[in-house]
Amino acid sequence: MAATIPPGAAADTGRNGRTGGLGRGRAVADADERATSRTLTDRNVAALARIAAGHAPRRRSCDDRSVPAVARVEPLVTARAVRGPFDYLLPDGCDVGSVVEIPFGRQRLRGVITELAERSEHRLKAPSAVLDVSLPPELVRLALWMADDVVSTRARCLELLLPPDGVGERIRLWAERAGEAAVDPAADDPDAERYPGVRLTANQRALLDRLPGWTGDDLQALRRLEGRGLVTIEPRGHGRRPDHVALGAAAGAPVLNPDQLLAVQRLEDALRGAGGTPGPGEDRFLLHGVTGSGKTEVYLQAAQRALAMGRTALVLVPEIALTPQTVARFRSRLGETVAVLHSGLSKGERRDEWWRLRRGEARICVGPMSTVFAPVSDLGLVIVDEEHDSAYKQDGDPRYDARRVAAWRARENGAVLVVGSATPRPESWNALRRIGLPRRADGGEMPAVRLVDVRGIRTVLQREVHQALTDARKAIVLLNRRGWATWLECADCGHSWECPNCDVSLVLHRGSGVLRCHHCGHVEHPPRQCPACGSVSVGQHGLGTEQLADHLPGHVFRLDADVRDRSGVLQRFQEADHGILVGTQMIAKGHDFPDVELGVVVDADATLRFPDFRSQERTFQLVAQLAGRAGRGGGPSGARASVLVQTRSPEDRALRHAARHDAHGFLVEELERRRQLDYPPFSTLVRVMCEHEDEDRAQAAASVLRERMPEGTLGPVPVFRRQGRFRRQLLLKAAHRGSAVAAVRAAVESVVGTPGARGLVLAVEVDPR
DNA sequence: AGCACGCCGACT
DNA sequence: GTCGGCGTGCTC
Ligand SMILES: [Zn+2]
Ligand SMILES: [Zn+2]
């Protein structure tokens, strides 16, 4: 029986997800599978004997060729110490991508079959069950590639691709009319007698009229009708669907402007050609469009065309917060075929959306990060919106970059890749074919950006900036520091307040009345006097958003990570007739405010002076994004909106380009600078952080590691202590990504396994932020 | 990860 | 003497 199942038959198709997800598989030794499992077991015994004799276990396929009988399984555990894969007997009908339950030591674990083999040098056990869920082979390849690419483990990457464990299908009772009530002859004619010849009360008649449907409070009444044979009731899977904000009636396609038309045309041509053999980079595009230029409409129409060609699409947005609005737009045009995946969904919702995609019931997935792992087949289009956003980098263990994964999936499936931004990354500008949307869809003007020199200015806001804020009806003010004061210092002896776990100063939060560490969450009471000298004059330094909000004139709205009801603040500001929105980075993301007439960057130097080769890029993005958010139409007078940038480096290249809205000029120069300095994208940086509670051991481990890393590795460089662990950093700048990553992986693994590595935390980051 | 095995300090 | 600390190694 097993011999007739061709390899790939089971794992390659989305099997019925209906009998439940993980954990509810068919147990190999279970009741109605008994016959199958018995033959399996008998054959296993024989197979074991042959393996012991040095032969490969053989199975006969219909065309009499030998087929693999060994499954190489990656047990799903997080530990780095488990170095798979492990060999098991291949159960009937399984293939690469099948998910099995395996005996592993004395535990039972889930595992994914990542490879088949004909023989094994081990004594093999059989998996104890085959689960209903399986991964398409493409996603197995993705996990294996990703594990190497980001120096993580295969198991951790595989786990990312699977639906959540421990939730099954939701089962509810479904009722239908039956017997004499099966057909309602009066369905078309409201005056005719209903259910003729059947004795019914008015209540029962109403009950029958609402069927078919799910049972509820009326189950008892329905059961009585079931008893008379007028109704059937049976358990059925009742999929959970995430809530979606409605966006009115299904909307038609708006008229595109010429730029948009051209963009859609180019993507359509690429879609037509995709799947063939386009040249390198032929089907990878950068949609470079200013804020409000109508990028989303281009995405939508491209997705529509991909669907029409029988292919599927992924649409990535940077954050969960931006998902609902995008989903709503796609849904209002494309309907039920739009699924959504993100970590904010309940386990059940995620499971059900995963299966809708796996079975092909949904053919588009919209959302952040995890959407890039959607189990669709026939992928035709991958869209990454706001591609410059660093939220696309995961900062947990598989430190993957969703943009890189998106590019991999597009390449692997012959799909078209489209990344969009008003402020693209130099890497994308350099590598992708550019499509421009240079005009705002509403024809509005870009705001005037002015650099304000604050050298020698002792106040927080320069006089004109303060005046502009007083005059403006609505304004947004950006400052990238949370809290009231970022550090405290005794005026008499210079004592400062630092975190006991980290080598950083504690931040005063006045609203919550605490000193807080922004790196580990440590909290303590603010001092009344200096513990070193007893002085009561404690100076507050470093202005944060909380204090800034207090200084500003008029009605102030504050938005940062410390604010509890963030969407409420946004909404109130949006609806307000006048006021100032103050906050960190997050105020410049996503939502735009058409009636804001002034944007202010309080301290552009904070970003600019950050010691990192990307600081210029980030500064340009910060200013340009704020300019994009601020007013389309300007004030009530229709005056042009403006952006004021406070800086002590008004000659800075990034700032000057941003002030002229000249992304092109900035990117050309920035790329040239990076080429000369050998920075990405012309090289790859690999950073290894060694952390240990004991400083000497952190240092020693880093030194040993450095010896095993490729030539030219810099370090160990001490980095400030965090969460009680001393840190040492190694940095490698390499010309060739693949070999550098492989070498670092080997070095790290050689150190992780050795004695003396106890308590050592190693984090590898390729192309760190 | 989870679990057993094993080798040293200190407690019934 | 043995109880238990965790350092080490193994799981197909
Ligand atoms: Zn003091
Ligand atoms: Zn801390």
TrEMBL record:
Signal peptide interval: none
Cofactor section: Zn(2+)
Class of the enzyme per the UniProt entry, highest EC level: isomerase
Residues covered by the Helicase ATP-binding domain: 276-442
Positions annotated to bind Zn(2+) 1: 490, 493, 530, 533
Listed Pfam families: Helicase_C, PriA_3primeBD, PriA_C, ResIII, Zn_ribbon_PriA
Compositional bias per record (Basic and acidic residues), positions renumbered to this chain: 27-36
Any one annotated GO CC term: primosome complex
SMART domains found in the cross-reference section: DEXDc, HELICc
Catalysed reactions, semicolon-separated: Couples ATP hydrolysis with the unwinding of duplex DNA by translocating in the 3'-5' direction; ATP + H2O = ADP + phosphate + H(+)
GO biological process: DNA recombination; DNA replication initiation; DNA replication, synthesis of primer; double-strand break repair
Gene Ontology molecular functions: 3'-5' DNA helicase activity; ATP binding; ATP hydrolysis activity; DNA binding; zinc ion binding
Note accompanying the cofactor annotation: Binds 2 zinc ions per subunit.
Highest taxon above the source species: Bacteria
E.C. no: 5.6.2.4
Positions of Zn(2+) 2 binding: 499, 502, 517, 520
Function: Initiates the restart of stalled replication forks, which reloads the replicative helicase on sites other than the origin of replication. Recognizes and binds to abandoned replication forks and remodels them to uncover a helicase loading site. Promotes assembly of the primosome at these replication forks.
Similarity field: Belongs to the helicase family. PriA subfamily.
NCBIfam families: priA
Subunit: Component of the replication restart primosome.
Protein name, UniProt field: Replication restart protein PriA
Organism: Patulibacter medicamentivorans
Phylogenetic lineage: Bacteria, Bacillati, Actinomycetota, Thermoleophilia, Solirubrobacterales
